Amino acid sequence: MNRKISVGMAVTIVILAMTVTFSITMLIAMRLFDSTVSSVKEKESMYNKVAEVDRYVRSNDYYTIDETVLYDRLTAGYLLGTGDKYARYYTANAYTELMNQQSGKVMGIGVELGMDQTGYARVTRVYEDSPAQEAGIVVGDYITAIDGTDVKSLSGVDAVQSRLQGEAGTIVNVTWLDSKAASRTTDLTHSGYTSTTVDYQMLDSVGYIKIRQFDGSTPSELDYAIRSLTTSGAQSLVFDLRDNGGGVLDDAISCIDLIAPEGTVAYAEDKNGNRTIIGSSDDESKVELPIVCLVNGNTASAAELFAASLRTMNGARLVGTTTMGKGTIQSSPQRLSDGSAVSITVAKLICGDGSCFDGTGLSVDVERALSADEANSYLDYTPTTDPQVQRAVSAAQQLSGTTTVAGANDSASSAAASSTAASSVAASSEAAESEVAAASVVSTEDLDVNGTTYSADCYGEFTLSNGDTMKLWKVKDAYADLSALPMKGMAEEFPIEAEAEQIYVADVTSNGETTRQYLRTDKAGRNGTVSVKTFELGDAE
């Protein structure tokens, strides 16, 4: 049966619907209005307060106001007042400098620095073909003044590095103390040089990789390091992330992808709790070797994500001390109308397994803090003498099943690490020690090393503590040619007192088979000892 609705009923229904719609619309509009008015009132109150202070100061202040400084401080203070401890304000000049630096227009002099108890900036690394290297600055020197400004008056290593930067072709005057405590001063011209973020070497059977920060070049450098170490026979890997403050998050995720199996690496979580995947790994290039990450209280942000991801996805062990606990994501600097810029926190960083280290840091599986004396010597350590590195190496050997008796427990490994830091040459037997006193050159021969013929002093043949024999040569004038070749590890035994910055060749005979070893010594340590390391022939790193 067809039912017809009267015209009056239809009109009534339409009017009713319009009334309901209007009511809902008015309700929403009133709430929005109230919210807007409230926000406007709050902003008006804030502006009025600032204006009130400004009127009072300008009417009574004794000092002349620098308007530019005032506006910069007001903006910086606003960010401080938000409670975002990672928010940052860039003045117009600072933002321009940042952009120039990222584009390669602003350069340093080619050094990495660390502040020690002297208050001066100690040189911890000098890059090849840099202005610093050309000027004769070497690792261990102390930069004391920049353009006449005492380094002790600057607020930390970042401020020192900033003073050393400038546009290509500009000059900076640098004063430093060399190894003989002699003060030297010269003008350095900013010019291009190649910097790296990844260092690597073999420590016994362990591949050691130091990552100083994550930037655009790090993934390719890390990929090359891993391939080189695995080709050299590494049975486990140690990633040294100490003092790595993070860097570019996307580049850190790319590095994780080189190592981790397939899975989600990280999420970004907004203030409402909504999560977005910001990184994943595939299964194409995962590393199957046991992994240890060495961390400390300055390991932060993207470096913490790297360590956390390898622990959950690769079963890595963490050695060292609890990390910083910076698990947030900041925006790229947003430029303002006057040329300045701000960067603010936009999300929380969540690991692929759903955990978050923000505010807590990452706890370690093996605690190995530095003692007070070790901390004072921190800048003097090399990977072969650093007690934390040695503990990480011991942990890596345990994971790979190649650990020694000394590395089987924490106390023994700590003692071994301390011993290694104090003395770089392995202990010899009484027979070998008796040979040291009698060691002398018995002949001079020509030796072919890495395709070049050198004159070499032969010390004859020695009996080692395990009954093997070693015939030993010191290769003259070869250090400069061969010092950059990749190191394998410490020599197990060296029968004579080693000289600094020398190349040695040894024929070791065991069970009737003779193996040739290539050995290198670098500069003497603080206690005068000289470490003897094995290296591989080939192309320089």
Short overview:
The chain has 541 residues and is an alpha+beta fold. The protein folds into four domains: 1-61; 101-189, PDZ domain (Pdz3 Domain), CATH 2.30.42.10; 206-422, 2-enoyl-CoA Hydratase, Chain A, domain 1 (Alpha-Beta Complex), CATH 3.90.226.10; 430-535, no CATH class. The chain contains 13 helices and 28 strands.
Structure description:
The protein is an alpha+beta fold and 541 residues long. The protein folds into four domains: 1-61; 101-189, Roll (Pdz3 Domain), CATH 2.30.42; 206-422, 2-enoyl-CoA Hydratase, Chain A, domain 1; 430-535, no CATH class. The strands form six sheets. A seven-stranded antiparallel β-sheet has the order 22-23-24-26-27-28-25, with helices on one face. A hairpin with a 5-residue loop joins strand 3 and strand 4 (121-126). The chain is globular, with a radius of gyration of 31 Å. It starts with 6 loop residues before the first helix and ends in a 6-residue tail after the last strand. Mean pLDDT is 84; it is low at 404-438.
